[in-house]
Specification:
Mean pLDDT: 89
Helix content: under 10%
CATH architecture of one domain: Beta Barrel
Low-confidence stretches: none
Number of helices: 1
């Protein structure tokens, strides 16, 4: 029996480029590829939270530390730079439910 399992995930990355006339693929900052253990030319699935589109393509390397996430070729019709850029509103209260602080992200857990 073969099981398909989640191997890697880049959660809520934001599309920075959408290049219709570029050879198909998704260019991803090399640092992100390494951190997520995604190989160049590996098949990837993309889920667009703005329009519900789900599609499969392959990863190619973008310049390290560039932050680039570029959806290319025909897939460029399915994801665009202006798609949702979600920022949660987290409210922290004291023991009397009075607001103490507000944040837009959960702090990283320390070891």
């Amino acid at each position: 029996m073969q099981r398909i399992m989640l191997k890697s995930k880049l959660h809520r990355v934001h599309v920075t480029h959408s290049e219709l006339h570029y050879e198909g693929s998704c260019a991803i900052d090399e640092e992100l590829l390494e951190a997520a253990n995604i190989f160049e030319y590996e098949q990837i699935s993309i889920y667009n939270v703005t329009n519900g589109q789900r599609f499969t393509t392959y990863a190619i390397r973008a310049e390290r530390h560039s932050g680039i996430i570029s959806v290319n070729g025909a897939a460029a019709h399915k994801a665009h730079p202006q798609d949702i850029q979600y920022s949660p509103q987290l409210v922290y209260v004291d023991q009397h439910n009075r607001i103490q602080t507000k944040r837009n992200a959960i702090p990283a857990q320390a070891a």
